[in-house]
Every structure is written in structure tokens, then in C-alpha cells.
From TrEMBL, chains A, B, C, D:
Gene3D superfamilies: 2.60.40.2250, 3.10.620.30. Pfam families: Transglut_core. This is Transglutaminase family protein. SMART domains: TGc. Residues 159-219 form the Transglutaminase-like domain. SUPFAM superfamilies: Cysteine proteinases. PANTHER family: BLL5557 PROTEIN (PTHR33490:SF12), BLR5614 PROTEIN-RELATED (PTHR33490).
Length: 265, 265, 265, 265
């Protein structure tokens, strides 16, 4: 399906402040960017680089005063995400090298502390996709999804002590459990077409049956179109913006996604 | 300055044919893509990857029949290219690792055969930028620039026996001579704003004085805006399209570049 | 100076177990490996790859039974680590791209939780090297260095609540504080020549004044020779061995480092 | 099998001269380095980096006077190279990204000039491994293998006009023909155990049936152990040493390979 998505971020910057942005979706095997717009207002010199995980990142120094970042694009994505019940666990020695970083514990996914819990959660389940599905089911049963509530980023061990969670929290908990079972798992930040209220979204992917599969504990089914903006080990790697120096307040953030019949001319 | 550039390629494809395209300019330290469009007609599944030199490449199988590729973008680039007479030669042992591949001979730049010629050309000239400038001057004096004439790609040794050349030929000869002097040199394919007749363009960059500088034997001065689409060792690395299997004829190619006051909304 | 270093790891493996090893020092700008030995007993098929941070890693499946890994090398290293009091802070926008991952919080270095503490620690100190030195001084004053005590890996926030620490803990705390000040900081695992008792060692590097500098809170001065085996964001990235599946006990670990006059023939 | 191999290069250096060396075999999926020695005499500061193709390269400035480089290693390699008659051609659109650079023409393999010849050579042969084997057969029939004779490096089109060739020439011709058929092909430089007279060796690999296979026109069968030191597009990428500035004469080069029962302690 074709989606039109946009994101507008408005800041009031007290003093010139360095930013790293991760707002440009890559064309890849899952999605094709047909039209794209990326505007900085006021116009500001920016430099793009590719990070460790292949994401396109933009570096700039936001000038003091009102500063606005606006991205928009027409993108073709799959109508829904693949599911594969029964897809087998890939033994560690057969994993492709690039999946290995996603086995390690990371800032918000302390998989080293989840061995016991993960093992007991999936007891009796066939190793692989079904274990991931079971983890998602556990997350859905133990945490109420409360979009928009949760400013400070918390880690999987902290999430696990709560009763409600945002999309990011649920992804962190899912990732931590998968890695504890030696299943590579990574964070995805992006857009989801039917998401209400509209916002940027986060979910995770796990590597089973020889490829990455999408898991999203916030959704009962995987219907709908997903746009991936960035991949990483957890939220620390995939912030859509990281700013340095004294904290800058965001005035406004507008996210919009809609299905379109075809890219506009 | 802001430029609007576009490129449209039309093919008649006899049988489904694999292509690799290199048509997406990257935002980087020299240019910022504010708007971009990349359309395949009929709509065709494509996969993007990054090549050895950091270029964004698109893989696809063009279906039999009429097939059209259309890219367009609004991009901010420098008003003119920097010049630096006197910028010194960088001793090989001080060159950054990523420049080293651009010291080696390559398909169309047989620098191993140009040691004597290059040395005699720059006799008495201070090592570095001035040597490159002298090489450009030699190319301009010995070859008439005849845009549009020259279908088969020929190598620097072949170019050197001719009296006229296209932009690509001149770049190959310049690169071969620079490398023969242990100056890293690389090919750039892209757009040049005031170029007439309008076409895709090729020039080269040489690494002296601690950075890459633009050299373009087709132009008497470096005035005007340049959009880089791809970097490589020579034309073999930076073809805007490479097709495999039986040769496919291109029906039409339209390139357009113009200066605009600001990116359109 | 020339060092001879060796590391022998003996395991009793209950069932065939996948390992990733990081035991091969790279020759680089700081050290030169003149002789090296890397033996697996019993002989086992191993595959080497380069991880995200440039470390050479070896993948293998250790067979059930007694399994031993032995590495040894003659290596030339600097007589002591450079110090640079007064070396300035590098503004984020001027940092080289490869340093940027070392600004982000990571599993054992929750720099996002250290902003206030780090800021108050370095109040009145010139940004850059001197801030790092002040952080090291704080670590030395608040934690007793107790080599060999501390099996479970704990994170900087946990370290900060204790009164004693191993080398790894001290490095994690130092890294977390540096990153909280927007100074890139990374973990190093390796050998230190005069270390007693002999063991593998961990320290950290911070990027100030345009290069990486060594900081080691376990040592009052930076005298002595250092061999770097692996670089990473924290201990999660640079484990000399990571094993998957049910935990395997290590029977014995022998580390030896000594100064030699020249590599043996 | 286990091999012990060594290479000693002696130079008389008129003035300090920058070198890039490619003499360190990597442990990987095909070979395991158990012991290694790498000595520079006189001892000289060297820096190692990884090139575009994953080879470990060493940069140094050889001081004026006598200069010697000596490498030696014990390495485990396969007893013989795999053959796979009938292994199918991989359509370009299914090739892994990292194989794509090996489809392009390069300095000494002008595959763009071999389309007709390659097509006629393999007429009627099943696409894939058998085409490569046919190309090898053609090379063996049309060129006498004359080891040691052939100082200047010549390209595939030049080789094709001769009646005798060194290993490097034969590899270049084989690579050019494979690429002309859209089969990725790459140059390998290394050691071959039973080679007489002993020397460094060159052969090529082609990507068919989903993996790289070894082809060596100098040998009637692929028996014997091979050590790969470097991979690249052709001899320009994989020179065991590249020197810059005025040519330096090599006084002596000694290569030695022998089978051993096990690595020495």
C-alpha cells in the first residue's frame, strides 16, 4: 500500500544546540520512498552520515530562536507484516554476523537479567517464532497499553514492575526476553498507519526462521502499514532526535500518516 | 544556491532485465536534499543498498515492455566549488585510510602507465593542488571538449591518443595523472547547473591540502552549482544505471537542472 | 616497549556450546603484533569476523568435554599512555562520526541518569581533559579498588552506590560521567604490564582535544604498557568470551604479561 | 591440513618510502591462523587498517637502507578446494550485495570488452559452474603456464593476445570472462602448498550456486592446500606490497610453504 506520512517538530532554542536527527526512512527491501521532503526552518547547514546500524542520520546545530524540522514522504510498504508461526529458532552458530549485536544486552534491554523469567515464560514452547509470540502475549496480558503516557525512557527491568506501558516500553521488554533466549531482537522506530492517536511508533523485530519478523505488543493483529525510520539495539540508538547540552523544550510535534492511492505527482 | 534537477530515463525492455541504479544524491557535507522524487513506471519492486563508496544504489528487475525511471529533487549546494592554489601534497603516510583506494589504478584510469608522463607534465611545479591544476590545463590544451560525442567508454591511455573528448574522458585522464603522482583522485557523476547542452556530467576530485577539491577540465572556471550523485574510482563504479543480460536500448533520456529561489512547498 | 602476553582459558563443557571470543589484539596505530599464537584444544573449527567496533571476533561451537583456548603474543606498545592536561572539549558538532556511538547511554553506562551528578562534579573545571581527570579523581576517592572481587557485571548507577569496585566498575562509572558531559567515552579490555595480581584489565578512553586519551581509575599514574584487545561501549560489547545456552563454568584462567627486550625468533 | 608458510622480502631503500603491505592472512571461514609472526627489520612503526574488501593492510614508511619484512604462520586449511559441477548461475537480482563489486570491470579485467568472446566460449553450456570450468579449460588450452616470467602486470585483453602467462595473467583472463557472463569473480593472492617453484600464487573465485568456488587455471586439479592472503577485484587491489614514490628494487624474496602435522608449540 502507499502511505503519505509526515512529522513536524517545533522547538524554541535558548542557545545554539547540536542535534542528531534520525528522520529519513531508507528505501530498502521492505519499503520504497517515492517522494520525500526534509525542510529545516530557518534553513540550517546539515550533514548526513550513516550510523552503525545503517540508519541515515543528520547532524546540525540548531540556531537560537524558533526552529522547525519538517519531513514528509510518500512511501510504498507491505499491506501487513508477515507472520510465521512455527518458524524455527536459529542456532547461534548459524546466525549471520550482522545479527549478533542484537543478542547483547543494551541500555534499556538488560537481557542478562531476564534469563530465568524468559525461560519460564516459554516453557514447553517450540524454540523460535512461537516463543516470541508467547512473549508478546505475556506483555499484552501484564501491561495495559497507554499511548502518550511515559516521558522518561525506562528499561525492561523497570517496565516489568509496572502495570501500564507505552509502545517503547513494550518493545524493550519483548527485546530483553528474546535476547535472553538467544534470539536476536532489535528496536524499530517508525510510523504505523492505523495508529490512534497518531504518533511516532515503536515495535520490535526478532530473527527466527532465517529472517527478521515484526512483533508489536500494542496491536492485537499485525494488520496495517509500517514505515521503518530507524533500527537499533533499543531506544538509545533510535531516538528521532538527540540533542546535546542544556535540555531544549519541544513546543509541538505533529505526526500524520494516511493511506493514499498512489504517490502524488 | 538552490537547484531543481531531474532525470528521466525511458527504456523499451525486450525481456525482464536486472538493473542497478545510482540516481539518488545523498545529503552530506556538500549538499542537502530538501525534496526528492523517485518514480518507477510501471511501479516495480526495488531494493536499496549502499555500495563500497557510500553511494545509495537501487536494485530491481525491469519488466518487459516500456519502463521509465524518473528522479527529481530540490537541493541546496555551494554557489561555486572551492579552489586552493598552493594547497600542499599530502604524503602517502599521512593520507586518511578512506582515500587510499583512490591511489590505485582502475579500469579506465591506468595510472600505472602514466608515471613518466605525469612527472614530466608537472616538472618544477609545487607538489599538490598546483600539480592538479597543471594537469587540468594540459587536458584542456590537448583535447577539444565535445559534449555528447562518445558512446563507448574508453580508458585514459586511449583518451590520451585522441584530440577530442567528453567530460568522462577528461576526468579519466585527470585521475590517471593525479594517481601517478600519488595524489588520490576520484570520479564524480552528477549535475552541473549551467551546463549546455543539459546532460548528466562527470568531473573529478583530488585530495590535496587535507581535503577533496573539485577539478573539471570541461570548464574554464569552477563557477556554478554541482550536485554529486555518485563517487567512485572511475566510470565503472559510478554508472547511473548498469544493466545485466542482453543490451537494452534507451529510448530517451531527459536531464534538467535549474536554479530556484527556494525549495517548493 | 615489547611485551609478551598470554591468556589461557579452560572449560568443562557439558553440551556443545556456541562461543564468541574476542581475544586477538589488532595491530593498529597504538600497538604492533609481531608474534601471535591462537590455539584451540581440541582443535575446533572457528570463523573470524569483525564486529561493529572493528574488533576481530571468533565464532565457534565448543565441543562437550574439556575445552581450552590459549592465546599468546609478542607485541610492541607505548612505554606509557599519553596525558594532556588542558586538552579542550570538542563541541559535538565537530566530533568525527565514528565517535558518536560513544556519546549514547549503554547497558552498563546509563549516562542519561548522570547529568546532574557529572555537572556538579566538574563545576568550575575547564571543559575537556581536566573534566575527565576530575571524574577519575572522584572515582578513586569514593571507591576502593578491590581487584578480583565482583563476578556479576553491574552498571554505573549500581557501582555508584558501592564503596568498592573492580576495574570494570570504575571504567563504567567514568564512561557514564563523561558521556553525561557530551564527551565520547569507550571501554577498553586488555592487558596492563605491571598489574598485580595478573589478570585481564579494563579501563576507558575519552575523546578530547581531537583524539582518544587513556584513563584508568585503578592506577595513580598511567605508567606501564597497555595492550588493547577490544573496544566497545561497555562490558557488554567487549567480553573476551560470550557463551550462549546453559551457563558453562570456567575451570581455570591464566593471564600472564611480562616485558621482553625483543620479540623471540 | 596444517601448513607452515613464510614470506621474506628484502629491500634496499634509497630514501624513506611509504609502503602498504597485504601480508597477513585473516582467520575466516576457510582458514584458521594458529601461529603468526610479522617482523620488520629494522623495527619500524606500522599501522594496520582494513581495506574495502576486508583485507588487513599495514601502512609504514620504510627507512632508508636495508629493510626486511618477514611473515610466517601455521595455518589450518582445507585439504583441497571444493568443486561443484552443475552448480547453477545465480541471477543478478538474487546475488548478495557484497558480490556486486565483483561484476564490474576493473583495471586488469576489462570484462566490458569480453562479452562476445565469453558468450561464444560457453555456447551450449549450462549457466553457472560449468561455464567457469569451460573458461578455465580455454585458458589452459590457449596459454602455456610459465611461472616466474612476467614482471609488468598486463590486463586480460593483453593476456589474451599472448601464448604464455603467469598465474596472475590466467586469473585476470578468467575473471574478465566470468564477469562478462554476469558471474561475480574475484582475485585471490596467497600460497598454494605443492607449488613448484615456490612463490606467492594467484587464482580466482567465482560466485555460483550460492557461494564462492575456487578456480585455478595453473593446476589440472584443485588438490592441495590454499592460504588466502588477500581478495580483490584484480591485481591492483591485492598487491602484497605497494610502494609509493620512486621505484624501490627488491633484493630478494623468499617464499616457503610446507605441510606440517600440527602447529608447533
Amino acid at each position: 500500500m502507499w502511505l503519505h506520512a509526515s512529522c513536524k517538530l517545533d522547538f524554541e532554542i535558548p542557545v545554539a544546540t547540536p542535534f542528531i536527527l534520525m528522520l529519513r526512512p531508507r528505501s530498502g527491501s521492505q519499503q520504497w520512498v517515492a517522494r520525500e521532503q526534509y525542510m529545516l526552518n530557518p534553513s540550517t547547514e546539515a550533514v548526513e552520515f550513516t550510523d552503525l546500524f545503517g540508519n541515515l542520520c543528520q547532524r546540525l546545530v540548531a540556531p537560537a530562536g524558533f526552529f522547525s524540522i519538517q519531513t514528509a514522504f510518500d512511501i510504498e510498504v507491505a499491506d501487513s507484516s508477515d507472520v510465521a508461526p512455527g518458524a524455527p529458532f536459529v542456532p547461534v552458530e548459524q546466525l549471520p554476523d550482522p545479527t549478533l549485536p542484537f543478542l547483547l544486552p543494551s541500555r534499556y534491554c538488560e537481557s542478562d537479567r531476564f534469563s530465568q523469567m524468559a525461560a519460564s515464560l516459554v516453557e514447553g514452547i517450540n524454540p523460535g517464532y512461537n516463543q516470541c509470540a508467547k512473549i508478546v502475549e505475556y506483555i499484552q496480558n501484564s501491561l495495559a497499553y497507554t499511548p502518550g503516557e511515559g516521558q522518561e525512557i525506562i528499561s525492561a527491568t523497570e517496565v516489568n514492575q509496572k502495570s501500564q506501558a507505552v509502545c517503547r516500553d513494550m518493545a524493550h521488554l519483548g527485546i530483553a526476553c528474546c535476547r535472553a533466549l538467544s534470539i536476536p531482537a532489535r528496536m524499530v522506530v517508525g510510523y504505523l498507519e492505523p495508529l490512534r492517536p497518531m504518533d511516532l511508533h515503536a515495535w520490535f523485530e526478532a530473527y527466527v526462521g532465517g529472517r527478521w519478523y515484526t512483533f508489536d505488543p500494542t496491536q492485537q493483529t499485525l494488520a496495517g502499514g509500517r514505515v521503518a525510520i530507524a533500527y537499533g539495539r533499543d531506544a538509545a540508538d533510535v531516538a528521532v532526535y538527540t540533542q546535546f547540552g542544556d535540555p531544549v523544550e519541544i513546543l509541538n510535534m505533529e505526526v500524520h500518516v494516511e493511506q493514499i492511492s498512489a504517490p502524488t505527482d
